Amino acid sequence: MNEVPAQAAGVTVRRGLESDLEGIMLIERVVFEHEAWPDEAMRRDIMSPHCFYVVGEIEATGQIVGYAGLQCPASSDDGDIQTIAVNPTVRSRGLGRVMMRELIDEAAKRGAHRLFLEVRADNPVAIGLYRALGFHEVGVRAGYYQPDNVDAVVMKLDPVPGGPGERRVGPVGIECT
Q: What pTM does this model have?
């Protein structure tokens, strides 16, 4: 995914690189405040062959305004949306949806059957986006987000569109989608 994979309202979505860490962490700290990941943890994920990160970058300035990460080892049945954040100044323009679609597509390419994520129970906008993308609620982790003691809603996408779990063998032994 070195070419421009998608665009949302003047923002180009591309593969995240280690050199994007500073821009990613600026958003991480604004959006997640006291729950923000440490720089080293984010760097490890961005660099891991088991993960796939995308960033949203303003075309005119190169400023990183969003990022999203997937953990999905190749040929694994399951993937996990690790994180997604959009700078508050560019929300509600479709960037989150475009980045999520990129992660879902990558999970399919890696052979995932199912995708999971956790989302704060007090974030109805994110929950609505995930539902619109085909995720459904499968559980709750009480008090998961600390120190706020907010529950996490666990959501699953099954099967991953375009992934192996979506295919079936037809009546004469051919693979159908």
A: 0.87
User: Which residues are paired to 12 by β-bridges?
Assistant: 7, 57
| Annotated active-site residue in 40, 118, 144, 145 | 118
CATH architecture of 6-166: 3-Layer(aba) Sandwich (3.40)
> What 3-state class would DSSP assign to 37?
coil
On the CB side of 145, CA atoms within 13 Å amount to 19
Give the separation between CA 31 and CA 18, rounded to whole angstroms.
Answer: 20
118 is catalytic: yes
130 a catalytic residue = yes
Find the catalytic residue in 3, 130, 137, 175: 130
Q: Do residues 154 and 112 touch, judged by C-beta distance below 8 A? A: no
Rounded to whole angstroms, how far apart are CA atoms 64 and 69? 14
* pLDDT mean values, one per 10 residues, the chain (177 residues): 51 95 97 93 97 95 96 92 94 92 96 96 96 97 93 97 69 50
150/143 Cα distance (integer angstroms): 5
Is the bond into 161 cis (omega within 30 degrees of 0)? Answer: no
Question: What are the start-end ranges of the H helices in 13-150?
Answer: 21-32, 39-47, 95-109, 124-132
